Amino acid sequence: MPDLPIYQQPSHQPANAPRHLDAQALAAALSRPIVFVDLETTGADGTRDRITEIGVVEVGPDGIVEWDTLIDPGIGIPPFIQQLTGITDDMVRGRPSFESLAETLGERLQGKLFVAHNARFDYGFLKNEFRRVGVTFRADVLCTLRLSRSLFPSAARHGLDALIARFELQPKGRHRALADAELLWQFWQKVHELYTIDLVESAVQSLIKRASLPAGLEETALDDVPDTPGVYLFYGDQDMPLYIGKSIHLRQRIGAHFSGDHRATLEMRLARTVRRVEWRETGGETGALLLEAHLIKTMQPLHNQMLRQNAALYAWELPPGLSAPILRSDRNTDFSRHPNLYGAFPSRASAQARLAELAQTHQLCQVALAQEKTARRGLPCFARQLHRCLGACTGDESLAAHRERAVTALANLAIQPWPFAGAVAWREQHGPKAWWHVLEDWCYLGSVPTLAEAPGLLSSPARFDLDTYQILAPRLPALLAGAVALEAVRRFELQPPAAPRPETQPQTTSPTAAPHRRKPPSPDQQTLSFFER
């Protein structure tokens, strides 16, 4: 679709001539109407929370019209939000529902340039509300926060309070919908006092094209992202790690986070709080999986709950000669070397629950598994009384036969011992770039571009890592075929020995070392950040 200009360009006036117009003349010069919109809501979650107030300032060739209404959200307004906006449950009780206003509001917004501050929030909320009543709402969207950043790049802050102070805007109130929408119209007029219409038009058209990019990111933030395998990191205020993900198509995946953020709670939160994007290319999908798991454990981003480091792991051991399995912990058992282990589980309770589930599925005896006791030997276990045990407890099944069935039941949980004598390097390549992944005892130690650099990652002891194991175990044939033992690399190095280190030496970090992790913000701090706009 060709760009639709927002201003008429009279043929008798040069396009670059300054045009400092008053409010009415500025409105009359528009070739398409603009709606300055602000919402107040019950919270920051676009999928769960609801709108409580809508304010619209419509500006166009026919003049300037203001419209606002309170809305009954159908849910309670949290005390924190009531204090922030001044809108209480009593004020919205009995007011129109969004469904009853949807047709009128849609007609008021249809075909107009939708302008809001941190527009992704307001536009996303409206799209969700319209969707709930079966209406598809679309509009060209302009974010005034991004417009401020584009036109005034030297300014440190671009929130609405910062604009009020910088341009001496006259607020009629704060955190009420119509008052905030009217501030955006004031800002629009101030912009046209400082810049020509052509310059503003150019900036607006550029921002509309980039509308899917979150307001907190620079316009060029994703320009250099390659469409290759790798890991991406989202950072918030004070460089707080927010989220870490991976993809075989980095550019496409990062963009997808911000194209549908009004539908998903996580995506909307990320779009509201992200301030910086970082990415790290890998040699392929395996490298991306390994690096993602490693970085999540070391950096502990706010919105990543999976792949976190477990305090301890548990596994069942069923060695030859024993009929009952023994529960082992990785605190005193090396899961990477110990044979006959089955698991692993994040807790003792989950290990016991899984064994009980297998016993029920395979009609195993809880007494023979040492998970249940009877008053005396030979008495049936509880499952035997229900005909769900084949009788190892009563002697109707031999312990040897029962053990064989237990091994079969546990087979899918078997932990493969580390198949090498020590550390190895494994090469993965995507296009012209290749990386060597350094691995030991089912632990990922990092990646380097050349094999000669691989021994440099062996400075710390390796510990069995369940996520690394789950990534590599299905790839074991390829790992066995392509791995290079690093002891051999060390043995045949032809470099002179390193000079002795001085007693004091600056601290260095490995290629995969994580920066200092900041304390996550409290829930109230996170909520407040959504509404400081």
Describe this protein's structure.
There is one protein chain. It contains 19 helices and 15 strands. The chain has 533 residues and is of the alpha+beta class. Among the domains are: 23-209, Nucleotidyltransferase, domain 5 (2-Layer Sandwich), CATH 3.30.420.10; 340-413, no CATH class; 424-491, no CATH class. The strands form 4 sheets. It has a 5-stranded mixed sheet with strand order 3-2-1-4-5. The protein has a 4-stranded antiparallel sheet with strand order 14-13-12-15. The longest helix has 18 residues, at 177-194. The chain is elongated, with a radius of gyration of 31 Å. Residues 10-19 and 490-533 have low confidence and may be disordered. DNA polymerase III is a complex, multichain enzyme responsible for most of the replicative synthesis in bacteria. The epsilon subunit contain the editing function and is a proofreading 3'-5' exonuclease.
